[in-house]
Amino acid sequence: MSTDRTVLVTGGNRGIGRAIAEEFISLGYRVAVTVRSGEGPTGSLSVKADVTDSASIDLAIAEVEEKLGPIEILVANAGITRDTLLMRMSDEEFEDVINTNLTGVFRVLKRATKGMIKARFGRVILIGSVVGLLGSAGQVNYSSAKSALVGMARSVTRELGARGITANVVAPGFIDTDMTAELPEEQQAEYKKRIPAGRFASPSEVAKAVAWLASDDAAYISGAVIPVDGGLGMGH
Hints:
It is a single chain. The model has no long low-confidence stretch (mean pLDDT about 95). The chain has one domain (about 5-230): Rossmann fold (3-Layer(aba) Sandwich), CATH 3.40.50.720. It is α/β, with parallel strands linked by helices. The protein has a seven-stranded parallel beta sheet with strand order 3-2-1-4-5-6-7, with helices on both faces. Helix 1 packs across helix 8 and helix 2 (about 55-70) packs parallel to helix 3 (about 90-120). About 45% of the residues lie in helices and about 15% in strands.
């Protein structure tokens, strides 16, 4: 299995993104992460970038390609939440989430796939969410953006599939991160009741699914949604 490849993980300084970067590093890949602040894990190249700013993405990708070589695997993970019920959600709260979680993915994808097309090899892995297809009260903005990534991956597959490029979505459910740790215990217990597995996932469980999709073993899988959700979103 070839692990002598260059990986870019957006939003790789914490949570799921950091775990994904750590997994690729442990497997021997060359790994770069984009960060708005802080640093990626030891062994990665951290580049400052804001996915809402095209110029910053251009600079970040140029730096990665100069130091590590052309990007062969893109993991689009950077995202934000602005949760509130529809009736209270401002236009800005909706637009900010779409701009980061959907348009931001497009901005990085467009630039990173140029080298993949030349090389006739590429892996595009978009980090979606169980709520993209399951829905979630208070997350009209977030679930809309995550749902849209499915159409994006499938369109990329149709455009670029003949060039050795795959595009898939990994859809995590509830994961043990700083964000879930802040939820009140009663709420955590309530969520766990809805998950057939009866627990939250560790970030590394998501990372392993991502690494598998990036591997040669998954060369014929494209346009798929791979759930890592303990059965929460079944049937979607």
